Amino acid sequence: MNIIILSTNPNLYSTRRLQEAAEERGHTAAIINHTKCYVVIESGDPKVYYKDHPITDVDAIIPRIGASVTFYGSSVIRQFEMQKVFTTTSSLALVRSRDKLRATQILSRHGIGIPKTAFAKYPGDIEYLIKQVGGAPLIVKLLEGTQGLGVVLAETKKAAKSVIEAFYGLSANILVQEFISEAGGADVRAIVIDNKVVAAFKRQGKEGEFRSNIHRGGNGSLIKLTKAEKIAAVNAAKALGLNIAGVDMLQSNRGPLILEVNSSPGLEGVEKATNVDVAGKVIEYIERNIGKPSLKKDKVGA
Q1: How far is CA 57 from CA 25, 78, 265, 291, in A?
Q2: Which pLDDT belongs to residue 125?
Q3: Helices vs strands, H then E, count in the chain
């Protein structure tokens, strides 16, 4: 197969591992910077160009789209979809998962456990927001934040009001979310591929840090998921229409609570913590599905 990995940085661990895994299985894998591609749209003949050449003879693409270029990256994916090229992540599922509010609403509608969350635009609603999520301490999240950036723990009601007012003053869109104290600054990431958890690890924030992201100095360790956690992870990925996803969840007293469903999960943390060849499993997923229609009807409806 001819596989294209859409990534802005060929030196990233995840990008390199996907290329290595594809080539180990006898496939051709090229890395192309999607931000340097452009689409040409004309009746009945959609094309994606890189520099002055159309990208042709492609069997599958693996999108590794950064949050800052979601709109453009999804447009490039959509153009490949119009050419009937198989993609591991659909353009619609990518956009859906990157909108934190939309994703949370979809998870809620499907009855999947999530921390209680509130969203408002009017600054006068701050008191009500704080009350609805159980008061302080609470979490304030920027809708556009990634890798733990734009996530603030407000430990008192006064601090919560100040943080929320500051974000509103910047015209930022935020979510206010209950704080799950029993999680102890840790979360679990499960990698779901083709409706199955293939690897999972626990991420523990460094001392004094409530965010467990590896990018924020957290560390990962192997964990065996409970049946409930596996079901929650698979259902969360399925609810958002993602065939490959990194599902982040908290271990709470009322069961697993989904924090986020990542459409381009990093591979370094999970592969090093579990010794599972996740990149290889991504290629195996393509091999199993390459002959099937890649543009199945999206049934999420949101």
Answers
A1: 19, 17, 27, 15
A2: 82
A3: 9, 16
* 188-210 pLDDT per residue, tens: 999 999 999 999 999 886 665 55
Q: The tokens of 291 are what?
A: 């002959």
Rounded Cα distance, 18 and 36, in Å: 20
Co-location of 223 and 102 in the same domain: yes
**In Å, how far are 49, 187, 204 from 219, measured between CA atoms?**
40, 11, 5
d(CA 291, CA 86): 9
Domain span at 156: 117-179
C-alpha distances (whole Å) from 282 to each of 21, 55, 184, 204 are: 9, 22, 32, 26
CA distance 247 to 234: 8
Q: How far apart are CA 49 and CA 31, in angstroms?
A: 14
Domain co-membership, 84 together with 6: yes
CATH code for the domain in which residue 253 is found:
3.30.470.20
Secondary structure of 269-296 as H, E, C letters: HHHHHHCCCHHHHHHHHHHHHCCCCCCC
Cα dist from 185 to 210, 249, 255, whole Å: 4, 12, 16
Please state the separation of Cα 112 from the chain's center in Å. 16
